[in-house]
Write a structure and sequence with these properties.
Its main location: membrane. Pfam families: CarbopepD_reg_2, Plug. By secondary structure, this protein is an alpha+beta fold. It folds into four domains: 73 residues, Immunoglobulin-like, CATH 2.60.40; 121 residues, Beta Complex (Ferric Hydroxamate Uptake Protein, Chain A, domain 1), CATH 2.170.130.10; 40 residues, no CATH class; 56 residues, no CATH class. Helix content is 22%, strand content 26%. The strands form five sheets. Strands 8-13-14-11-12 form a five-stranded mixed sheet. It has a four-stranded antiparallel sheet with strand order 3-2-5-6, with no helix packed on it. The longest helix is centred in the C-terminal third of the chain and has 16 residues. The radius of gyration is 48 Å and the shape is elongated. The termini are far apart. 15% of the residues are buried.
């Protein structure tokens, strides 16, 4: 037994039986652990290189793209029977079964469903954009109804034409009407901080310039009230936008001459308050005992309090009574004196024409009130 142990130890020491502890070889049918390089050229049917075309082994993460010359080089663990896919935007994909080759070229044909050409044409006027009207935030003013209103100021004519558009006439002499779309947005003093943005044929104009426009020269007016205004014009449109499209010339070779006349009268309207007569005003002044008013200054109460011991007291009372009697006979109706029926007339003349090469539109307006 001792001799057997010695011999076994000798075998182990010399490495004769070391193969007993070696790992078994792993083998997979049809697969190799070596990396294979596949290269080639990718072009279209005209022979032009397709830069950026993608070559991918189906079912794996191995892929590469072609360079500017259309050449590609794919390094992966390839085996026969793998499916190779080549794709490019606008082209029909190509699929090839790998058969062990090292070089493989591809030719891709155009996709028949792709668009040949897309032409984007910008509108000359921002009013022609239709996408805003579909969002429900754009209101169009009825120009026929606007022109029928007997007013020389287009700002006043806008009153009641569009829901949410508020036009307030302060009534002060020489003051312009206040136009609001979203109400007052700022606490700053002045009308400019709260009035909407006025756009004429794509250009910004002031509210004073808007008031001078002739309604007969306007083709269309749109009112933007919500987010569409800010999307187009930025923070300047936070109070809303009033877009005006003017009339243009004709390209049909004809000349159109249009003349319109508008006449009317502005009535006094109703009285705001009922005023006192002169005798009532004098009596009120006497009761208030204000020496700066004639009702008390010439009254008997004033003379008896101011000159109780004067020998001319009776004469002064009689003189004051005469003055008051003369004042009581004056009853001027200042409502009729200051506010009268105002006549106005508005003349509009326009000439429109042109040809295939050019067009023109000329107009003149005279308004008196």
């Amino acid at each position: 037994m001792r001799i057997f142990h010695i011999l076994l130890w000798a075998f182990i020491a010399t490495g004769t039986i070391s193969a007993v502890h070696a790992e078994p070889a792993v083998a997979t049918i049809g697969q190799t652990s070596e990396t294979t390089t596949l290269s080639g050229l990718i072009t279209d049917i005209d022979g032009e290189p397709l830069a950026g075309a993608v070559v991918r082994i189906d079912g794996t993460s191995f892929a590469c793209s072609a360079n500017v010359e259309g050449k590609y080089q794919l390094k992966a663990r390839l085996k026969k029977g793998d499916l190779i896919k080549v794709t490019f935007l606008g082209m029909n994909p190509v699929e090839v079964i790998y058969d062990g080759q090292s070089k493989l070229d591809f030719t891709l044909a155009p996709d028949s469903n792709s668009l040949d050409e897309v032409v984007v044409t910008a509108e000359p006027n921002i009013n022609n954009i239709d996408i805003r009207a579909r969002s429900g935030v754009v209101q169009t003013v009825d120009m026929k109804r606007l022109n029928e209103k007997p007013m020389t100021d287009i700002s006043l004519a806008l009153q009641g034409t569009v829901p949410g558009l508020i036009v307030t006439n302060t009534g002060e002499l020489g003051s312009k009407p206040q136009i609001r779309i979203r109400g007052n947005q700022s606490l700053r003093v002045g009308d400019a901080a709260n009035e909407p943005l006025f756009i004429l044929d794509g250009k910004v104009i002031s509210s004073d310039a808007f008031r001078t426009l002739n309604p007969q020269d306007i083709k269309e007016i749109k009112v933007l009230k919500d987010a569409a205004a800010c999307a187009l014009y930025g923070i300047k449109a936070s109070n809303g936008v009033i877009e005006i499209t003017s009339k243009r010339g004709s390209y049909f070779g004809t000349v159109d001459v249009t003349y319109s006349l508008g006449m009317g009268a502005t009535l006094k309207g109703r009285r705001g308050v009922k005023v006192m007569r002169s005798d009532e005003k004098l009596e009120l002044e006497r009761l208030m005992m204000n020496e700066a008013t004639p009702g008390y200054r010439y009254s008997e109460d004033y003379y008896r309090r101011r000159y109780p011991n004067s020998p001319d007291l009776d004469a002064m009372i009689a003189s004051g009574k005469a003055v008051l009697d003369s004042l009581r006979g004056i009853n001027t109706d200042w409502f009729n004196e200051l506010i009268r029926v105002a006549m106005y007339q508005n003349h509009n003349l326009s000439v429109r024409g042109g040809s295939e090469k050019s067009s023109y539109f000329v107009s003149a307006n005279i308004a008196t009130q």
